Amino acid sequence: MQIKEQNEINWIDSRIKQDEIDKYLDNGKCFLDEIEINNALKDNCEPDSNYIRKILNKSLMIKNLSLKETAALLNVKDPDVLSEMKDAALKIKKKVYDNRVVTFAPLYLGNYCVNNCLYCGFKKDNIDAQRKVLDHQEIINETKALAGEIGHKRLIVVYGEHPKNDIDYIVDSISTIYNVKVKARQGEGNIRRVNVNAPPFAINDLKKLPQVGIGTYQVFQETYHRQTYEHIHPSNTIKGNYLWRLYAMHRAFEAGIDDIGLGVLFGLYDWKFEVMALIKHSLELERVFGIGPHTVSFPRLEPALNTKMDDLMNYQVSDEDFKKIILVLRLSIPHTGMIITARESGAMRKESLELGVTQMDASTKIGVGAYQKDTNIQDEHKQQFILGDQRSLDELIRELCSEGMITSFCTAGYRCGRTGKCIMDLLRKGEEGKFCKLNAIITFQEWLDDFSSEDTKKIARPIIEKEINEVQEKYPEIYPKFKEFYERTKNGERDLYI
Ligand code: SF4
What we know:
The chain is an alpha/beta fold.
């Protein structure tokens, strides 16, 4: 055996710390009880409409729903009651997030992977995948394209599980990204919030992430259904350990990360079960650490290169069911940010905004090193899946403006300490909205001056004016300071926030 292979095996063997799983188990049992979930779904399979209305009132007070209440919502079939649920979801979204949409871009740093997930084109056994890890200069080039040409301020950086992408590489790459500054029309473009989608780590590794100033740390469970999980994640891989992944966020909180994102890859198992399990995970984190997820994601399974999808397509989620997933998540964890990515079509993404979505990517490319290249051609040999929406950030923002929505580039939250329990309390009380509204206007104006097309600027102008008037009416005490920051931004100062 070559030394390189032996090193990789040693690395894999050192990843999972059994004591960091055992310490969270309750008498050897994990928090996710499949019988409890299945019983809740069965016992609430024909919910009474008055009971649903009671549940909606609880959601409207920005309170988390229980498993039983979530099960009842998932089982609603009556179109009139569904329509009441949609109205409530939109009201909640407006109460917590108003008309703001946060935008970001994914940045894939590497696609080497030691795992063999059956559904993934990056799996180790896929010899046709073209592998790459970005070096220092390539990270700078990718960041320049994202921050300097498109004007993104937020990224989600994505890493495979591999020694080439270990925690030190992750920390270095995030520092590199934060240090890139690019001249823009009036000011400069730079990335101000890096969210991280990475494999589960041990506590000592996770402690390194807050030191470099990350936003949200995401690990998706893919499927919470243990038998399915074990079938599609071979047991001789790191990812084959269900509990190591399930307790990734427990370790993250213990390591001092207080802003986390959960997610499910819908289509691997029954979608109702997955929603229930995601809610249980969220409730469990709140119970133990006092903080639930800042965001949830709900990608749908897509075909990928050299995957045997036929075995996996029994639980495909229809568009109608997908919309219900979004709706129920909005109602069950009402303060939580909800992300829909460019995996979905433009039409679906537009519709999802009415159901509760708050964050979207745009100008998205998911090939490793793809942003530096001036092409939108997708290559399944280099991508994890094929995108459904390839619109630019400028095009997406124009559409959002035409629907009366403002795009927020605000990244003040984690830099002002408004994270974790603090942000959750503010969101529940509807108070975070004050800071977000002011900072959204300031940062949106900044983006318009530096990056937008003339058409987008034109359509954005009345939205900005309306927002400014609302600030004057709703928050007169802070209006003078806001106006001063806004004018300074218009005059070319950058990165001002309240
Ligand atoms: Fe690796 Fe993630 Fe793909 Fe699994 S899903 S093979 S862990 S990149």
